[in-house]
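STRUCTURE:
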């Protein structure tokens, strides 16, 4: 198993992203491996490179190399953005949208019976399809306006099962891998898989980091297919 970033280091990365403090992000990223946080932090690295911050070009090159080596869904779209801000390519014509990829992934990988959701193209907000208050203050025609709303299909759990399988394949602990394979078969597989995994805190953290990365990548790829690229939301400051 590859070297891991510790929890304090991951919190530092998330905190810098939340504040859009690119200098702090570069400092946090330099203190650990980047392979676990490529999709999480890639847009922040692009922001740092666009501003020409010291060390940003080197960090972008590190991310590019790791993305090309990994090659998961969504990695090429992120690599394109990094190539663009470092002057090595021209970004495909995509409309920037301040969307939370984690929230978008929850809609995309939800139960198809719940009909997916909607992406507000004016704000980047993600809404489940049947949400009380979604239509509050809006005329019906506004809610159905294709210029404002993008339908997000619920694609189900297939990709999540693939994440489970990939995680199991990468485990060094053969006994844990066997238990997870048994738990991951048949109806209720996700619940049993997580019940077994919850007994091993370190493995639990590794699984969720892998799953979060892959979910963000899939959301990024879907967004590109629809003609958009993620732009980090403006931080909400308190006065």
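SEQUENCE:
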């Amino acid at each position: 198993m590859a070297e891991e970033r510790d929890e304090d280091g991951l919190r530092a990365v998330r905190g810098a992203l939340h504040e859009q403090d690119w200098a702090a992000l570069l400092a946090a990223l330099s203190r650990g491996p980047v392979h676990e946080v490529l999709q999480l932090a890639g847009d922040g690295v692009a922001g740092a490179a666009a501003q020409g911050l010291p060390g940003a070009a080197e960090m972008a090159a590190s991310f590019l190399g790791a993305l090309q080596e990994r090659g998961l869904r969504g990695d090429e779209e992120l690599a394109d953005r990094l190539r663009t801000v470092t002057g090595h390519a021209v970004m495909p014509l995509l409309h920037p949208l301040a969307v939370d990829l984690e929230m978008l992934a929850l809609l995309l990988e939800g139960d198809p019976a719940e009909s997916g959701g909607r992406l507000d193209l004016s704000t980047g907000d993600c809404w489940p399809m049947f949400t009380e208050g979604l239509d509050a203050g809006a005329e019906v025609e506004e809610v159905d306006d294709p210029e404002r709303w993008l339908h997000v299909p619920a694609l189900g759990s297939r990709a999540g099962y693939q994440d489970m399988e990939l995680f199991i394949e990468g485990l060094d602990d053969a006994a844990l891998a066997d238990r997870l394979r048994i738990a991951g078969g048949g109806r209720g597989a996700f619940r049993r898989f997580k019940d077994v995994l919850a007994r091993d805190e370190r493995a639990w953290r590794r699984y969720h980091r892998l799953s979060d990365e892959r979910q963000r990548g899939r959301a990024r790829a879907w967004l590109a297919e629809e003609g958009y690229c993620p732009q980090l939301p403006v931080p909400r400051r308190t006065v």
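REMARK: The CA atoms of residues 202 and 229 lie 33 Å apart.
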